[in-house]
Design brief:
By secondary structure, the protein is mainly alpha-helical. The chain folds into 2 domains: 73 residues, no CATH class; 167 residues, Cytochrome P450 (Cytochrome p450). Helices cover 47% and strands 5% of the residues. The chain has a two-stranded antiparallel ribbon. It has a two-stranded antiparallel sheet with strand order 2-3. Strands 5-6 form a two-stranded antiparallel sheet. Strand 2 and strand 3 form a beta hairpin. The chain is globular. The two termini are 31 Å apart. The mean pLDDT is 89.
Amino acid sequence: MGFFFEDYFPMLGWLDRLTRMRARLERNFSELDRFYQEVIDQHRDPAWRREEDRAEDAIDALLNIQKRGEANVTDEHIKGVLMNIFIAGSDTSSASIEWTMAELMRHPSVMRKAQNEVRSVVGKKGKVEESDLDRLQYLKCILKEVFRVHPTVPLLVPRETIQHCRVDGYDVPAKTRLLINTLAIGRDASIWKRPEEFDPERFVGSDIDFKGHDFELIPFGAGRRICPGMGVGILVVELALANLLYSFNWELPKGTTKADIDMNEAPGVTVHRKSHLYLVAK
């Protein structure tokens, strides 16, 4: 993460070279590009495929399309898909987990209810497994509330209008770039009661979900351009949080109270907390 002048003031993009942010970006890009190429080459190796004896994955599917020539799929396209999946399913996941733990520490009754649910469902197995997640309904309500109040990508992938249209009396010309503000939607008082209050109970018994069908809650977007890493991201967040709640009791460091938890946001496309969250696990 870091601040790029070019993101906000295109004319000042040359300053990014003076701050060495451009060099850092190019270095990270080169390292990731080499990694993605290694993964692609590995999937092309017949010996590796035989040894692994595994089911076909997304890379195999894309390589098969490339081989059959059904579409103009190049290695660069495959790398782009990999980048989308990994970033969408990892960077945002870590941010969501931290926001969730911060809110749970600020709301001890919600924390207790979530822990009671996880521990009653899992019992003495020792860890939460993927098969347990469908029964953790209150944990899902907590995540919906976190996605509403703290969407990790407040501005979705830009859209462009195909033709002229009118929205609420406003003329929107064709080829207009649109940014959808999910943070504003999630805190809109005309949609939500007590929008600034963190209250997972609002989703108990509610059919509202975040998978693109309910426009009140679209942290992953909707339609054909919905986040490709949604499934991976949700699984990672639910599994990580459930195990954190199952395995440990959480406390704030000595001398701090829930009022001391800083809920300010750091700048960036993916919104993390401005300050680190320090907790004591017991």
